[in-house]
Write a structure and sequence with these properties.
Elements lengths: L1 E2 L2 E2 H32 L6 H19 L3 H22 L9 H23 L15 E3 L4 E3 H23 L1 H11 L1 H5 L5 H23 L11 H14 L4 H21 L7 H12 L10
Antiparallel strand pairs: 1-2, 3-4
Helix pairs in contact: 1-5, 1-8, 1-9, 1-10, 2-3, 2-8, 3-8, 5-6, 9-10, 9-11
């Protein structure tokens, strides 16, 4: 059986690969959207936090024998704590300045972390085993679905929509949005806005680290894994609308599938299709598909 002249196994395989990539795009762009939408910081270090999450899981397994399921909790906490330190030491001094300063600072931190990890572990990458519970594949009749990739899509969607609900539909989310728009007013109600901002950045860092742990069994854990992905993720955020959480989630998933389909029909364009879409969207709607016009 063929779909558009292509064997259906290959067609569905690319759909699945695109959906898995889209799940990572969604999780990373979600963290970027949370940090930019609530704090106004263009966090170029987000790819590095993703890399640190994967390395934290690998180090926990290699040095301490900590399994994948524990690392799913511990690695984001470690990187989230690092995010809190970064926010307290550096970023809190830049909130009232042009966002370009935050971009340059986080870009500098990216170069430092990548250089240190490349010096210690090299650039070739480390392998992380698929957890025993998720090994193998499920026969769907028309294709074999790798169990781990199915888990990645499910976990990513759960985290993404759970985060959206927390920020957009709960009282805590209302405090977060209000605190970033009018901190003086919110502080009069007894809310510790600086603490809330600090924890928000830490949560965004933890989201990136969680994506890194999920990616570790699929790709090689290397110092450059974040840099190879962050440019595409920034494009996803721009297309969805800077600061739009739901826009980042939906756009990340959709563009992952579009990228997978492009590999089927026109492989030479698969590496640029996201940027072509970004240019077209910005020409028609500069604020992005889900962003608010200034």
């Amino acid at each position: 059986m063929e779909i558009f002249g292509i064997p259906h196994q290959a067609f569905m395989g690319q759909i699945l690969l695109g959906l898995v990539n889209g799940a990572f795009y969604a999780m990373l762009s979600l963290g970027l959207a949370v940090i930019f939408g609530l704090l106004g910081v263009v966090n170029f270090a987000h790819g590095t936090l993703y890399m640190l999450g994967a390395f934290a899981a690998w180090i926990l397994l290699d040095k301490f024998g900590v399994n994948y399921w524990v690392s799913l909790l511990v690695a984001p906490l470690i990187v989230g704590a690092l995010g809190v330190v970064i926010e307290r030491l550096f970023l809190r001094h830049l909130y009232k300045l042009d966002p370009l300063y935050g971009l340059l600072l986080t870009f500098g931190l990216t170069l430092i972390f990548e250089g240190v990890f490349r010096e210690i572990y090299g650039a070739s990458g480390q392998s992380y085993p698929v957890p025993e519970l998720l090994q193998g594949a499920t026969d769907l009749g028309f294709m074999f679905l790798p169990n781990y990739r199915a888990w990645v899509v499910f976990a990513s969607l759960t985290v993404c929509f759970g985060t959206w609900y927390l920020i957009e539909r709960t009282r805590l989310g209302a405090y977060l949005r209000a605190g970033t728009e009018n901190s003086a007013l919110v502080q009069t109600f007894g809310v510790n806005v600086p603490m809330m901002v600090m924890l928000t950045y830490g949560a965004g860092a933890a989201l990136a680290a969680l994506a890194g742990v999920l990616a570790a069994p699929i790709i090689q854990v290397s110092p450059m894994m974040g840099s190879n992905l962050i440019i595409v993720v920034f494009a996803v955020v721009v297309i969805g609308g800077m600061g739009s959480i739901m826009g980042s989630i939906l756009t990340g998933l959709a563009l992952g599938v579009v990228e997978g389909m492009t590999r089927v029909f026109y492989p030479e364009a698969s590496n640029i299709v996201v940027f072509v879409i970004m240019v077209l969207v910005l020409m028609v709607r500069p604020a992005g598909l889900f962003g608010k016009e200034a």
